[in-house]
Amino acid sequence: MSDNERAAKRQKRSMPELAIDTTSTPAPDMIVDVCNEGDTILVVKGIAGVPKPVGIRVSSSALSITSPVFRRLLATPGGNAPPTPPTGVEEPRLVYLENDDGDALFLLLNILHLRNDALPARLRPDLLFRFVAICARYECTVAAGRAASQWLDYIYTKTLKASRLFSHTGPSATPATPASAFPPTTPFSAFPPTNDSQTLFKLIEASLTLNDALFFARFTSHFILTQPTITSISEIAPSQTQTQQRLAAVLQARQKQTLQDLRIDLDLLIDPLSEALSEDTKHYPDCAPGDEAQPDGTTTAEEGDNQQQQYCPIDRDAATEFLSALRDANLWPATRWPALTPPQPPSSSFPSTSTSTAAAVGSPSLSSLPTAIVSTLKSFRVPDHDASDACYWCMHVEDRFATALNLVRAMHKDRLWGLCLDCYKAGGTGMGMGVYKGECRYEHFKPGVGKVWQVDVDVDVNGVRDVVKGGDGGDGAGEGEGQGSGGAMAISSTEG
């Protein structure tokens, strides 16, 4: 038996269950036309809340071209193509798909027939997840992926707006409007926000399935910046498939690397201040560092020897003032970070009905720590410092500190906080990230020749235990103008 025959048998075993056109099964009472001249009617349990079988008229040729699963299902037992109705017979054949979601399948069929005018402008997240599942089942994510971009954009925009809304409102003790223990049952909006770890993880997984690099990067960035560090895969991926295990492990490694990157960013701010306090920059007024102080012209040499010379205090005072400002803002040292008060949704207005969701949200002081640090740095104001008495040899700490602060802000603006889909796929099936050698669809900074670290994950009932180990990486040509670790989601160490 050839390899092609074995692959065909394996594909047949994984095909969705359906019953083809039998005389004992009655025709549906309601038929919706996707293709007016279609030769096949797919019968589902219901569409748009209709609690009875509904037929969908489609073209078997269009489905066979776009989906290999439909091509096998609609083919005759002895052939590879859909059957051609006899001349003069206009009655389409019935194909029953009782195990499929009617609403999701109806969306997919409109896309495969190029009926973009029949697609809704917006989708709720739950229907999007069902749509992605049906696309994966019929192996037509390539044909349907582009159509889902507008739905992903709507959900992402609402999620982002919800985060910004709650960032300006603290926890509320007042009930929701209308007065109820639960949020209003209105069409999908910012209430309740799709800001819990499980929903965001599903959106990331949906973007991965649809091979959408843009929204994979956007949703992973939002996850990294707003969600607590993953401690157990079961919190966000109850089914724990191999794909979910790897995705959760890479997200966990990226979360830890993000905090490390922020510590490095703070070091850039501290560097000019520490230099101003070092022994190398100490100097007497109007004297170069290392030179002995010279008495001024109003004193004799003997009087100058008796006077105690003082170092120039301008740089020291400026560095001390800026360090105090960073500490008052809870930015430095890193032990002050838990004192930051990140924004939290009004949990009292929207009580959680699941303990797993509550655990995924995390503690108020650490759940959105990266967001709190980035936003605090963005709004940090350099204190006014009077340096009018600075001498020629002063290093002007205020200017160097302001330059470093602007550099860090620019790095945060251009940095990819999340994951690059192409680099993620370059990691293969291992529990780690790779570096895509070609041009990534989402532009970001990539390291050059270096070592790419892999993350091995042991999964058990207690959660995830990650072990970082080194592995040889390939060449990755740097691209883009982003700063920071960017797309190297695994820890990378450049070797000369």
UniProtKB/TrEMBL annotation:
<feature type="compositionally biased region" description="Low complexity">
    <location>
        <begin position="349"/>
        <end position="361"/>
    </location>
</feature>
<feature type="region of interest" description="Disordered">
    <location>
        <begin position="1"/>
        <end position="23"/>
    </location>
</feature>
<feature type="region of interest" description="Disordered">
    <location>
        <begin position="336"/>
        <end position="361"/>
    </location>
</feature>
<feature type="region of interest" description="Disordered">
    <location>
        <begin position="468"/>
        <end position="496"/>
    </location>
</feature>
<feature type="region of interest" description="Disordered">
    <location>
        <begin position="280"/>
        <end position="308"/>
    </location>
</feature>
<protein>
    <recommendedName>
        <fullName>BTB domain-containing protein</fullName>
    </recommendedName>
</protein>
<feature type="compositionally biased region" description="Gly residues">
    <location>
        <begin position="470"/>
        <end position="487"/>
    </location>
</feature>
<feature type="compositionally biased region" description="Polar residues">
    <location>
        <begin position="296"/>
        <end position="308"/>
    </location>
</feature>
